[in-house]
Design brief:
Two copies of one chain form a homodimer. By secondary structure, chain A is an alpha+beta fold. Chain A contains eight helices and eleven strands. The longest helix of chain A is centred in the middle third of the chain and has 27 residues, at 127-153. The radius of gyration of chain A is 19 Å and the shape is globular. The structure holds a DNA duplex.
DNA sequence: CCTCGAGCTTGATCGAGATCAAAGTTAAAA
DNA sequence: TTTTAACTTTGATCTCGATCAAGCTCGAGG
């Protein structure tokens, strides 16, 4: 495992776990070939900072495995997470010199990186990449706006329930099946990181998780493993529209 | 003026006030020609709803003149503004059937609309449009993330100061010149709409504006006209990095 | 084995902003 | 001109989540 981490080595796009969801999803064989020539893999241990806000960014790329966070910090140290990067998510902004946010690996993580200049050229020449990137960016914008509602208007309890619903739903789409009300998953973040994401303090996060547990909305095995006996109940606590956007 | 509103009539892209900033900014003459064939203008009086969340959306378009808001509402009526649409901003999402947010005209407004189907075709065929739309979407995503920091971590006073800085800076770039510390502008929103944007109540907005006035950070002529004697002072109150992103 | 420290929980208290409640202002309508 | 209603301000009070302060848990390292 550590060997993989230190030197993930070249991989074939054919076996890539994010091949059909990342920025390269729409690429034809010849386009993949071109991408292949400017790509390289980088690994990061849990806790490592991938990029510091303000630093020169000479690459962009996709998360292949693991999880990272996008974080903004004020002068006095107040911190707000503005994105949670999962496998297939894109890091960096074509056309920008310096990073706007801190990117931190939360778990061990592998990225598929592209040198920025060549990638920008490809965007200009390869509509399939620009189109897919547009689509992904629009999705992120929607997610950011949903988060604005959460940050601006939801109670602490609703914030926690919303966050848990999102994690639960994501797990459901990955390990599909698991039908019916019950589902379970692991919390990828510490209480403090959750607080930064939700605009709360870590004490409030802890208290609200305890409260949801006491009320039977969730069950905990250890500190990180969450079991949701009734997903609709959780959605209800999140304060979202009842269907949760699954069918609409 | 009302005549213009009722029937703005066809315009020539050549005189369009947003020609060089909107989604069409990069288009060549022949591409403009194509856009011209699927475009039409629509006017909205102040207060009119342009689109209701959930409605079928058969057009996308650009704000030409006036201001609109993008708003999300929870079942119980809590409301969060997730965007302020100024001239040249894009409305709608290619590839989506129904509107995700309420769009409301805050002032009298004119939009340059494109029928959705044909516009999607053009995106696929005209890289200049897709590229510009990508760039604009990335800018919006950055703005949304800045707003997440504001909603999650700033105090009421900082929120108001941040909002005023943004308006002041925008006015400065439009009516350029006005160098030195002092600048003035009009508030485009009611106290209630500001509250929805900032994740506050209208009473808190009113109180904080009064407080900033009492402390000499701003001056008011009437309820809507704001004068900022010292812009750096305002920036300071906003809690942002001192340079405010003007030079970085 | 014990120690140590990072992460988590829980309690007590405080305070910023929400809520409830009047009034004041302004501009359009009658 | 007066009326009216939308918008705004200001005051009093309450509450949710922040802050301050101990402890608890558990796994890694000595």
């Amino acid at each position: 495992m550590l060997n993989d981490l230190k030197n993930p080595g070249p991989r074939d796009c054919g076996d890539c776990p994010i091949r059909h969801r990342a920025v390269c999803a729409r690429c034809e064989a010849d386009e993949l070939e071109q991408l292949d020539q400017i790509k390289y893999y980088r690994s990061f241990e849990a806790g490592r900072t991938v990029i510091w806000a303000g630093d020169q960014m000479d690459f962009v790329g996709s998360v292949v495995t693991g999880i990272a966070t996008l974080t903004q910090t004020m002068e006095d140290g107040r911190t707000q997470m503005v994105g949670l990067l999962l496998p297939s998510d894109f890091v960096g902004r074509p056309g920008r010199e310096t990073a706007a946010y801190d990117v931190v690996a939360v778990s061990d993580m592998v990225m598929c990186c592209f040198r920025k200049g060549p990638f920008e050229d490809m965007i200009a020449k390869t509509p399939h990449i620009a189109q897919r990137l547009l689509e992904m960016t629009l999705d992120e914008l929607d997610a950011a706006r949903e988060w604005m509602l959460l940050l601006g208007r939801k109670t602490a309890r609703e914030k926690i329930a919303s966050f848990l619903s999102i994690l639960a739903r994501r797990n459901a789409t990955l390990n599909l099946g698991q039908a019916g009300g019950a589902m379970s998953f692991e919390l990828p973040l510490t209480r403090e990181a959750m607080a930064d994401y939700l605009g709360l303090t870590l004490e409030t996060v802890s208290r609200q998780i305890s409260a949801l547990k006491k009320d039977g909305v969730i069950e905990l095995q250890g500190k990180r493993l969450v079991n949701v006996p009734d997903f609709d109940r959780l959605l209800d606590e999140a304060g979202d529209d009842s269907d949760g956007g699954m069918l609409s």
